[in-house]
Amino acid sequence: MSELALEPYRHSTLPFALVLPVGWQRTEDVDGCALVAVEPLRDDPRFHASAVVTAERLPGGAARETWVERSRDALRESLNRLRVIDLEVTEIGGIEARRTLAHYVHRDFGGVVLEQWALGEGSLGFVLSCSGGALEYDDLADLNHMLAAGLRLGEAAR
Amino acid sequence: MTPQPVLDASRHTLRIAEPTLATLVAHTADPVSASLQGPEAERQLTLLQAAGVIRGGRSHPAIRDALAAMVRPELCTLELRTGERLTQGWVGYSSAALLRAPEEDGVRRLLQLHPSLLPEALARLVDLGPRPQPEAGTPVPFDEDAFAGIRRRWCLRVGWTLESGERGAAELDVLDTDGGLWVIQAPEGDGQRVARPVTSTFVWRHVVRLLMRRPAERA
To answer: How many angstroms separate the CA atoms of A87 and A85, rounded?
Structure first.
């Protein structure tokens, strides 16, 4: 999976860009997500890997950390049996980012790993969420980190 | 006296004494096995039938796939050792079985689960979660007494047999401390074991690696 060819992608209206695997299906602005990219669907009953970007206006006056904490709380409320595995403060394109590695139980597919990076630029907060089947994490981890490393916001995305 | 098994079908768990489990596994492998003859086997079978674990000659569907994985672990087998406690596992392509370490009365808990839930089940058993991020550093000679704030030491060992008959095994030996996680590794040649600081992400990834029958990379 991590040997997939990557190609640049830039959102049509929002100020973010990243690299995505060639052939992944992309949909913009659906269900509150700025971008949903999914690996080619095959006729098999497994969870398909995906990369989702959400963008939201940061609450005025709220610290980035508070926003990140709220995002993590929202995960706990929306995902079944969420277990946080790791938290890390890192940097993407010169911007501080908060990485969360977590696991939840999907009612149809079983264990799913969610790796998420949250970072802000100006008044906008962006979250990149990479998901895949739990037993595929070793195949997907490098790809997840490549997608995150390629994320650019604001002027850097032009 | 052997305690009666207790089946919780809604949770796919079975509390069972080891002799009774041995009989149940033998029955799953071959219901007319010679090992199921004799008064002791008959007593165990009576216990299993009374508890509803075996009905009409078949095991209860809530644990049937776990027993199938124990008889034929297509993917791998595992042992998770935390101190003196040993949890065992058998993993097939569609189901897995986890057999928890004996409880105070010697009885064990068998759990049926989907293989994709195994990494999280193991993570829960060792309380794998966020820890202080390690600073990049060289490994240090391993002396457990030299580490402060030890939470637990655990070792996951996974073994497998490929379709070709080729066998393999690998393990992940972890020291969990308040200051972070360390992987204990044997030296390439002779010499003392070393401890390398690692992240929870590294440990999670390598638990998955082992379950997928891939030897853990060196930290």
So the answer is: 7
